[in-house]
Each structure stands twice: as C-alpha cells, then as structure tokens.
C-alpha cells in the first residue's frame, strides 16, 4: 500500500491509501522522493486547467529512487533518477520528425493521467533517466528549467542579441537563465517587484521593468526605439501575449511559451512590416533536459535560491493554498514524498 494525494475536485486535496503499482513489461518502478509544484498544478487545484478530468493525482516534476527496472536496463535499484513526464507514442508524425515534445498522442503525467504526488510510480523505462552529481531537489527542478531551455533553443539566440522575457514566474525565470547563458542581453518585464529582484540578483538580468502604463515607452528607451531581437512570453495571459507582438523589433522573433484557451490576434501589417518570426514552444526534449543537467553540474543554475518552499506530501493540502498567494513569494516549491 502507499499514500497518494488526490485532487478530487477543484480546491479539494485528499490523502488516500492505494495499492502500490506493479510495473508492467518495460516499466520502471520508482520510489518518488521529490515533486516540484508548478503553475499547472495550481491551475488544476483552481479548476482552470482545460485538459484534465477529476479526480487526478497531480505532479509531473519528479525525482526519486529506482526500485526495479527491466532486465538489461542501465537503471538499477538505488539509482537516483528524474522522470520525463511527457509520454509520447513514438510512432506519430511528430515523433517521426524527432519532436516527441509535441507528439500527437501525448499523455502528460499529472494532467492526462495520474502523476507523482504519491510514494510509488510505474513509468515506461524510456522516460526515466539516471542522474549523477545532482541532488534529488535539483533533479525535481530539471523539468521546469528544461521548458525554458527549449524555448531558448527554439529561438536560436546569437550572442549579443537583445531579448525580452515577459512574465517572471518559474518558466520566465528559466527562459531568462538560459537566454543569459546563450549570450543575450536580457530584459525582464513583470508586475511583481520581488520576481524582478530575483531575476536581477540571481540570474543576472541586464534590465528589469515593472509593468505599467509606461511599459512601451520604457522598453523603447532601453532599446533606442528598436525594441527586441527576441521576445519570450511566459505570462499565461492572452492580453499580454497579444501586446507582446509590439515589443518585437524588425526582423525579430516572438516565442510563445504560454498556452491559453483563447484566440490570439495581431496586426498583420505590423507583423509583415517587421518580417517577424512567430514560434510556439511546447514542453521539452531529452536534449533540453541534458542541457539543464549540464548547467546545474557546472554551477550555472542557482538551485538553492530557486527552491524557496518545502512541504511533505501529508502537509501539502494545508500548504498549497498559501503558496498560491503572491505574498508567499514562491519561486519553486518542492514536496517530499
């Protein structure tokens, strides 16, 4: 038997006892040790996640310890590992193009199927990777960092280019970090002063701008009226995503990391006048996960500063509502299972 934390309905978390899973053919049994809480989990708790049905076990930022693995696997009992939570089919057109992150039949742990807020989890071997030289807390942060790393890789940043990151939540923070590592001069735009302070003090953001009615003028002043070579949206706000088109300079690129249940519109004359490139960025690939792990091992990721809040599986029902308040100052919260 094992403990499982279930989101039975919006705003309702319940601790249950369930049978521990028995791994099937080709599956790894993982003793879950850490689970990162992200915006998706908070949307599930609020009832605003569009791709989900209740009840659901949340949790897709996972690290743990191998209990058992298939014969011939390079994983062994006792190994520490992280889980890539995007279970791709391997056979659709996207997978055949080497883009399993946008698999046509994708199932995401903690969203389309039960996730990791439990003690044991059975996962197909191909989605579990051993980690060495990285602690369990750090391994549980690899997934959200990889989303930012993937967006930056999509943008093909050249050293010295100017980049604007709109939205300084965890994904925007990840995009800021990897844009800086790619050599860009980075400005971060957000309404929250504490998030902007974090990006300046811990990530080396070159400029931070507080959202206001004067934002367009401030961004124009910072760039000599040219605006930005690259703009990354990580707000989750349709209005912000639409406004971001006006921050892209001529010949620039706009990367939408956010996904919303809305239609996004833009001025076609402005779009064409600037010969703008528009990119979606979805999830991440193993290449991005590897890049994040390499950056952590190299000391390039301030993991201790990112990990602002902790709780146990049993304490999470009491802790989560408070974490969702801006006054809590959460960057990344980690649950111990």
Structural description of this entry:
There is one protein chain. With 337 residues, this protein is of the alpha/beta class. It folds into two domains: 2-140 and 302-336, Medium-chain alcohol dehydrogenases, catalytic domain (Quinone Oxidoreductase, Chain A, domain 1), CATH 3.90.180; 148-280, NAD(P)-binding Rossmann-like Domain (Rossmann fold, 3-Layer(aba) Sandwich), CATH 3.40.50.720. 29% of the residues lie in helices and 28% in strands. It is built from twelve helices and 17 strands. The strands form four sheets. Strands 3, 4, 5, 8, 9, 16 and 17 form a seven-stranded mixed beta sheet that branches. β1 (2-9) and β2 form a beta hairpin. It is globular and about 60 Å long.
Map the helices and strands.
Elements: E1 2-9, E2 12-18, E3 27-37, H1 39-46, E4 61-68, E5 80-83, E6 86-87, H2 93-96, E7 107-108, E8 120-124, E9 128-130, H3 136-139, H4 142-155, E10 162-166, H5 170-181, E11 185-190, H6 193-203, E12 207-210, H7 215-222, E13 228-233, H8 238-243, E14 248-256, H9 268-273, E15 277-280, H10 286-297, H11 303-306, E16 307-312, H12 316-323, E17 332-336
Parallel strand pairs: 10-11, 10-13, 11-12, 13-14, 14-15, 16-17
Antiparallel strand pairs: 1-2, 3-4, 3-8, 3-17, 4-5, 5-9, 6-7
Helix pairs in contact: 4-5, 4-10
